[in-house]
């Protein structure tokens, strides 16, 4: 699809079923309407991390409230989980979701299957995947699984990637959600070959202090822009949730204002849907 033929339009509230759009849930979480499918990826809608890290150096207090309560989420057609960090694989979000919708399928990294089973539910319908896999979970929906490097391009003892990204193709649209990731050899080529229209990339960056305190980082804003150079749009995420692990949204707005070529940068806002007009 030509980037010149697509635009994103802000609208208040949750996406309308059947109308292509993106709804940011905070951190790396999105509700994606492809037009025919309703997808949920990496939702963190609880305070589980604030309880876990209360009184520590990084107390994980939310800077933004959840834009929707777990109990108010509609039934998604599929849930995608990129890795096992709690702000992506949250027991207090995915567990209740599974209990409300026992038929719901969760695509999870095979390397994290045991912890996913514990956090989501012993009877949950899990679809374990690894980098390089291709799925056709629903008619007209294709999922391509990419490796991700959350500072390191890790593998488990069986050679599987614990950190993943997902390419989503449906209804003539192509999305790429990198999961938590930094640049690594071969990633740019993979994304160029996949040719997404919209890239959903973390932009909270990384530094030695966070790394020394077991807080692995992600793309800087400049790195995300470079990776998305052939995309129509870059939707930055993984900011505005925890004070120790964010960037100033004004930096995103400044970068967006200065763009004269792809990708166009659209900063998502809580409570808004970005309708996709083609």
What is the CATH C-level name?
Answer: Alpha Beta
Distance between the termini: 9 Å
Number of strands: 15
Radius of gyration: 17 Å
Measured by DSSP, the beta-strand proportion falls in 25-35%
The name CATH uses for the topology is Metallo-beta-lactamase, Chain A
Low-confidence stretches: none
Query: Would you identify the CATH H-level superfamily?
Result: Ribonuclease Z/Hydroxyacylglutathione hydrolase-like
Query: How many independent structural domains?
Result: 1
| Computed structural class | alpha/beta
- Please state the second-level CATH architecture: 4-Layer Sandwich
Report helical residue fraction.
Answer: 10-25%
Summarize the model shown:
This protein is an alpha/beta fold. It contains seven helices and 15 strands. It has helices spanning about 50, 90-100, 115-120, 185-195, 210, 220-225, 250-260; strands at about 5-10, 20-25, 30-35, 40, 80, 105-110, 125-130, 135-140, 140-145, 165-170, 175, 200, 235, 265, 270-275.
List keywords for this structure.
278 residues; alpha/beta; Metallo-beta-lactamase, Chain A; 8-stranded mixed beta sheet; 7-stranded mixed beta sheet; 27% strand
What does this structure look like?
The protein has a single domain, classed as Ribonuclease Z/Hydroxyacylglutathione hydrolase-like (Metallo-beta-lactamase, Chain A), CATH 3.60.15.10. 19% of the residues lie in helices and 27% in strands. It contains 7 helices and 15 strands. The chain has an 8-stranded mixed beta sheet, covered by helices on one side. Strands 8-9-10-11-12-13-14 form a 7-stranded mixed beta sheet. The mean pLDDT is 96.
């Amino acid at each position: 699809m030509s980037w010149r033929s697509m635009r994103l339009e802000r609208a208040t509230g949750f996406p309308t079923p059947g109308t292509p759009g993106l709804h940011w849930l905070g951190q790396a979480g999105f509700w994606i309407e492809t037009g025919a499918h309703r997808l949920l990826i990496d939702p963190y809608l609880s305070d589980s991390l604030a309880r876990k890290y209360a009184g520590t150096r990084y107390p994980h207090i939310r800077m933004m409230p959840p834009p929707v309560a777990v109990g108010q989420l509609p039934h998604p057609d599929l849930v995608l989980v990129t890795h096992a960090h709690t702000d992506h694989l949250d027991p207090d979000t995915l567990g209740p979701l599974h209990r409300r919708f026992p038929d719901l399928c969760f695509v999870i990294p095979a390397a994290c299957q045991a912890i996913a089973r514990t956090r989501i539910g012993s009877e949950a319908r899990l679809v374990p995947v690894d980098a390089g896999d291709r799925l056709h979970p629903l008619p007209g929906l294709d999922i391509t699984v990419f490796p991700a490097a959350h500072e390191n391009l890790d593998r488990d003892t069986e050679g599987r990637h614990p950190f993943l990204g997902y390419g989503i193709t449906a209804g003539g649209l192509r999305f790429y959600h990198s999961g938590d990731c930094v640049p690594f050899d071969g990633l740019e080529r993979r994304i160029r070959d996949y040719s997404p229209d919209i890239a959903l990339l973390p932009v909270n960056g990384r530094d030695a202090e966070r790394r020394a305190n077991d807080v692995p980082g992600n793309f800087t804003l400049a790195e995300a822009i470079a990776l998305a150079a052939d995309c129509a749009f870059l939707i930055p995420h993984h900011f505005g949730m925890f004070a120790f692990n964010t960037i100033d949204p004004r930096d995103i707005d400044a970068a967006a204002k200065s763009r004269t070529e792809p990708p166009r940068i659209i900063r998502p806002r809580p409570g808004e849907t970005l309708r996709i007009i083609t």
